[in-house]
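Memo to structure team: turn this sequence into structure tokens by end of day. - J.P.
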Amino acid sequence: MINKFISTTVINRYGQSAWDEIKASLGDYESTFLEVQPYSDEVTFGIVGASVEHLNIDLAVFLRQMGEDWVKETSQGSYKEMYSLVSGGAFEFISNLNNMHQVISAQLEALVPPSFLCEKNDDGSITIHYHSSRDGLEPFVEGLLMGVCEHFNQPATVSTVKLRDENNPFSTFRIDFK
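Reply from structure team:
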């Protein structure tokens, strides 16, 4: 699903011709990825790498854009029903991401989803601890969190508080509502 989605971000933000050029540069690119078929992270990172190289943009910028666009696409498409089950806004949605990933994992056995732990702070902000087996996706998560806030009409800023390292098994984000 994510491999198909990379092209959606490129097309929506940079145009069909940009995607056609990126796809041509990939050589053995599979033109039709199956949503229920697992693909290696190498394939996904290869498509992302070719995209940022061709578009001449920073990887973190592109990953943030993908995160924001992921929420827009999934909330209007195949996961629309899951978004509609949440009435309590961004905090409730993010707090239930682990449950949503568990449901999806039942359908996609090879899925290795991240996990999220949310805390509501006294000042109304939210702290999110993000656990993943994949490195370097924090900008994507920032974009996802921004997209969730936008989806629920809760203007906010998202910041990375701390990145995962050898002493800390998770990355931490903060959402401050405007």
